[in-house]
Design brief:
alpha+beta, 3-stranded antiparallel beta sheet, globular, two-stranded parallel ribbon
């Protein structure tokens, strides 16, 4: 049922948003060098690795400079266009392709780096019992202001309570949070 729900939402969304996606790609090409799509290996359902797709919001090789994989408000590695994309979570829209491919779901724990998921303890491994999502309980309960342990707690709670009704509630609350541009960054690096 969840897979059908994901497809019924993601395919029409991808079609409807395709003009926006094309416009973003054109603007990004004019802004400077580098790929339009950022592709990174993540740990997914049952520890299976997959490549997540996002619009590139940072300079090339950003993970090798500054804060590495972490970001903060006014991070100099974030491009001008990237800053706008992040504010409205537009950078996440290419993940609709991940959903259609079956790597992700609309709702679930955010996919973590493989260096993290490959070293999870038994408690943390629970978050990999469902497909990772574009949004989830952690995103509507603090987003990027949460500590890693708090994110894991919310994700495990989602795994234990997952239902179509909860997914719909999370999606609706996510829209509200994104429009308010809430909890995009921690006050400090995070």
């Amino acid at each position: 049922m969840k897979r059908l729900f994901d497809l019924l939402c993601s395919v029409p969304l991808l079609v409807i948003l395709s003009p926006l996606l094309l416009l973003v790609a054109i603007i990004m090409k004019f802004e400077g060098k580098g790929p339009i799509i950022f592709k990174q290996k993540r740990g997914g359902y049952k520890q299976k690795h997959f490549y997540i797709y996002k619009f590139r919001t940072m300079i090339q090789n950003a993970e090798n400079t500054g804060l590495g994989y972490k970001t903060e408000k006014n991070d100099p590695r974030i491009t001008r266009v990237g800053n706008v994309l992040r504010k409205y979570s537009i950078d996440e829209l290419p993940q609709l392709i991940n959903i259609i491919k079956g790597d992700m779901s609309i709702v679930g724990p955010r996919p973590a780096l493989t260096v993290q998921t490959d070293n999870y303890n038994n408690y943390q491994l629970q978050r990999l019992q469902v497909k990772p999502g574009i949004t989830g309980l952690a995103q509507i309960n603090g987003r990027n202001t949460l500590t890693w342990d708090e994110r894991i707690k919310w994700d495990v709670e989602y795994v234990n309570k997952a239902s179509l009704g909860l997914d719909i509630k999370i999606i609706l609350k996510t829209v509200f949070i994104v429009l308010r541009r809430k909890d995009i960054y921690k006050d400090k690096a995070g």
